[in-house]
Structures are given as C-alpha cells and as structure tokens.
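User: I've been going back and forth on whether these two constructs are worth ordering. Before I decide, could you fold them both?

Assistant: Sure. I'll take them in the order you sent them. The first construct and its structure tokens:
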Amino acid sequence: MEPVEIAKDIYCLSAIDWNIRDFHGYSTYQGSTYNAYLILDEKVTLIDTVKAEFAEDLLAAVSQLVDPRSIDIVISNHTEMDHTGGLPRIMHRIGEKKPLYCSKMGYKNLSRHFSQEWNYQPVENGGQLNLGKRTLTFLETRMLHWPDSMFSYCPEEKILFCSDAFGQHYASLERFDDQVGESIMPHAKKYFANILMPYSPLVLKLVDKVTELGLALDMLCPDHGIIWRQDPSRIINAYVEWSTQKPKRKAVVVYDTMWHSTEKMAEVIAEALARQGVEVTPMHLRTCHRSDVVTEVLDAGALLVGSPTLNNGIFPTVADFLTYLKGLKPLNKIGAAFGSYGWSGEAVKIVGKQLEEMKINVIDAGVRVQYVPGESEFKACTELAAKIAAALPKP
C-alpha cells in the first residue's frame, strides 16, 4: 500500500483486495479497494480505515508519512466493517483515547460493533472541525447506504470524502478517473445498481442539497475504487440519471431453462423485440451473475422473466434473482413472465405475482408452454414481445 498524494499533504491510502470475488452476493470479478485518507495538518487526521485483514498494511502506509501515534483524529464516515474492521488495531496503535468522530447514528452503530470504550465524538449535520489550515464540514447522508453514513467536506481543497457514494468495486494500481478512462463507468453503474438503487429518491435529495449549499467540488474521494478528479460532475450527473430510473426503450430477458424449452422461448422473445427496435439483452441465469443482470435492469424499461416449473414452483436460480431484485426496489418498469412446464405449470403465475409485488407493471398474463414449444407457442412469444415493445418509450 503506497500513499498517493491527492492534494498538498492529503494522501489516499488504498488497500487493494485483488482476490475478492463476492461482496454480499455482488460479483466483484475485478476485486475492490478500501480507501482511507490521511490529512497532514496541525491535527493529523485519518478519514476511515480498512477491512480488518488490511489494518497492518494501512499502518505501514501511514508510517511512510508519519508515526501512526502522531495521528490526532480519526473520522468514521461509515460503520460497515469493510471501513471499520481495522479500527481496533488502528486505535490501539495510535492511542485508544484519541477522538473518534462519527455521526450520531455512527456512534450507536460503532458501539454495537466494538466493545472498546473509545473517545467517541458524535457530530451534528453541518458541524465543523478545525484541523489547522483546513476545516472539515460533516454532511449527514442517512441511508446512503446505511443509517450512519456521512460525508466529510474540506472547503479549502474542495474535496468531498464521500464514503460509499460514487464508488466502484474495482482493484487497480491507478487511483484517478483520468488514469483509468471510460472503462470505469460500467463499474460505477454496477455499484450504483446493486448498492444504491433502493435509495434513488434519497440520492436525488442529496444532490439537490449539495447544489443548494453551493459546495465547490474539485475531487470526490470514495471509499472504494478510483478518485474522481478530472470531472467530478460526470459521476454526479450519472447518479442523477440512474436515480431517476427513467425507462429506456430497452428490455432485459432473464431466464433459466431445464431442457432448453424456456431458453428457446427467450430467444424468440428477444429476437422479436429487436425487430421492433428495442435494445434487448437476453441473460441466462447460470451464465450471468445476478448482480450483472441487475446492472442491465437499472435503465431498462421492460423486464421479462422466464422459468420452467420445478416441483410446482419456480426454478432455483430464478427465485434467487427475484429475491435479490426485490430488495433493490426497481422503479418504472413493465414486465411479463414466460416459461415451460411438464405437468403442473405454476412457474409463470408465481413469477408474475412476484413482479407485481415489486410494483413492476405486469402487462400480460404471460406465455406458458407444455414440454416443447412449437409454431403456435412461438407465435405467442412474438405477440408478447410486440405488446412489450408497444408499451415502451418510442424511439
């Protein structure tokens, strides 16, 4: 872990987790980073820490700049253990009585995570902390994405230390957006879709609040992934767009299959949608990870879910996906179900009901096929696609 100076006497200390491949059911096929930030001022300040297994790496990085015992202040923007797991080791090394600043909810949550009697300093929304040449202003950001979350803003440097917002699960030796380029945006979109989508209305309120406060922003420093310094407004504008969940003329056809019948139906539906000028993404659930499907669903106007009937129910991978999606609370979608069966055929009805429970507008009862689809069944799939295409925004 090499310290990277992001502004005069302000350093990013990134623990690179090259090998993590799953984060709470989210596929992190390109790893992740856990970013802490060190400000060298009259009061040396550490903003956030790292996962427990990287605590010694963080201390070694700090030691390249200052003696860890010279740290005067620790700030916890977010209680989740990928940012606080290293706190016990850090606090033990720098001194248990050093002040630990956090939100009021952060104080409650940290004291439930850790038994140590640290010197907690709960802060008010809008509260300020003088470091010497610099100040920090604390902005409460409840439920983005935990109730304790807050941002720390340094007006002198125009830097927003933004916790889990604007991050990406992305392992890289590069630290900045201009070093990585366009390839970072799919990672940022996936991060938003799988972590922040349920809080879209709160994201919009936060952006309005930041605009109202007139905060000048030269740099956004998240706790995962790269730092936005070239054009911070780019990711802010992307968050606004993603938060509105404005439906595109786009459909995701997600399915699993036992003996290829449901798969054949998915292919016919996808091809028929494409002929209607719909951007369509077919996704087989044993080939595509649930978190990648959700990323495509984020800006889609339509979701079609296909499942064979298994033991009078839906296929396990489909059940897994629908459970995962339900918690993310997608907005502004139309949908329908389709699938094959042998003798009972409950899957289509069950899927349709679950889509309705997610407040997805189910515009068709769905297409059910016994055993193997033929010409008439494929015609029904094509008609379903036409109905979906007609209900989507016009090109």
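The second construct, handled the same way:
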Amino acid sequence: MGCSRDDSEANARSVQVRRILWAILGLNLGVAIAKMLYGAVTRSLAMTADGFHSLFDGTSNVIGLVGISIASRPADRNHPYGHAKYETYASAGIGLLLAVAAWRVGVESIRRLIGGGGAPEVNAGSFAVMLATLAVNVGVATWERRAGMRLKSDLLMADASHTGSDILVSLGVIGGLAAVRAGYPVADPLLGLVVCGFIARAAVRVFRSVDETLSDRARLDPREVEAVALGVPGVLGCHDVRTRGTASHVAVDLHVQVDPEASITAGHAIAESVERAVCERFPEVSDVIAHVEPLDEYQQSKTKRWSEGV
C-alpha cells in the first residue's frame, strides 16, 4: 500500500528545497565572481581555482533545481514508485561537475609547476576576499546540511558536501597566499593541487551517496521494521524485510506470518495493519507491501534462516 501522505506536505517539501537552492545559487555566484575576478587581477592560480570551484557550486544548484522539479512529480503509470530518484540523478550530475573541476584545476596546477609563469600578487585585498567568501561558505554549508537532514534530501546533502569542500579549499588557499607573500611563490600551484584533491574527494563522497540509492542499498534497519510488524496483533512471525529508495521516499516489503487457521479476510486485515504501522513508525516510508503467510513448519524454518542471516 502507498502510505497516506498529504500531497500538500510533499509539495511543501519540494518548495522548501527549491527556495534553499535558489538562495544558495545567488550566494555561490557572488562568491565565485569575487574569487575569480580578484584571482585574475592578482594572477593567483589557487584563488582562481577556488573561484572556479565555487562557480561549479552555482552550476550544481541549477542542476539541483531541475532535478527537484522533476522529482516532485507524482507517481504515474510509467513511474509507479514516483520520480524521487531524479533527485539522485541530479546529485550524480553534481558529482560529475566536481570531477571535471578537479581535472581542470589539477592540469593547470601541474602546468604551472612545470612551466612556471611568475609569482602571483598577494595583498591585503586577497586575504579580505578569501576571508569574506569563507564566512559565506561556512554559513551556506551549515544551513544546507541542516536543511538536508531535516528534509531528508539527498540533493541538499550532496550540495552541502560540495559547498563544504569549499571551506577546506579556502582555508588552504589562505595558507598558500600567506606562503607566497612570505617569499614562496611555488606554494600557489602546489595549493592548486591541494584544491584539486579536495574537489576530487567531494566528488567521491557524492558518488557514494548516489550509489546508496541507485544500488538499492537498505535504507532502514530490518530489525526495527520487524519489531514494528511483530507488535501488530495477529502477527506471529516476520522475515525477509527489504527496503530501498531515496532517504525521503523509502519502499518496504516484508513477509508476515499469521495463524494457519485465519481466514483470507483476517490475514488481509492483519497485513494492512502492518503496513499502516510501518508507515506511522517511519515517516520517510512512502510504500509498504506485506506478504501474508501461514505460520507452519516450513515458514518457521524460513523465519529462522532469515533471523540467523540478518
């Protein structure tokens, strides 16, 4: 059965995610422009690379807006489980952009190390720009991660990881600027490589999150779902609990065992009670299917094998 969620609640979640992405898009574009312009003026590869990273943050917000718009569509004949995974596809797009950014920054840093190109100009303005944009990134990453956890949004969590990588990168760039000013110009391309590493690490984290959804990794502890089912009157056993989907749209199927003498009508009523109980216990669950079986000797052996394997 599909859990009786209020459509207005789902729409409200989608609206909240979109508003957050629009706000962060504006902030990311402002941060990117500041870093890239000042980096170009002072010929700082590390600052320009960091600005490029921030620009990709803005691009990922656009991808996220498109993804959440599609993901918010209701289930239809061709998508009976809904469109929630389009949010995951958008997260994969963000990961791909991060991978491309890491490659470009790495190539440019290596080119500068091998071929040279002169020392960048470092002044008080360089530090002012980096510190100001760092403060913005800290605020954005904190806000977005909290919103992602509250709304159970894979997209916001992926984008928060993207923005969070900017914080570490910016700290490294600030350290590199200080080293350049102290007379070590090679620190600029070296910090470019460090930036490359952080961007690549963020990409890997995003792809891992995407994999959890697309590979149908279990979303709920089967023991907790089993406990809910066993708490329903008439349920004598439970096994083969499976869960999958996105963090905010989890599908559950399980087998429940009842008295062999129970009528089909009674067994069906027990199954529906189990489905309602699971929906009420786990707000992130959007669909539950409970398969009813008579608790005979064969079914007891199935339950035992499953219990030993979990």
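Notes on the second construct follow. The chain has nine helices and three strands. The chain has a mean pLDDT of 80.
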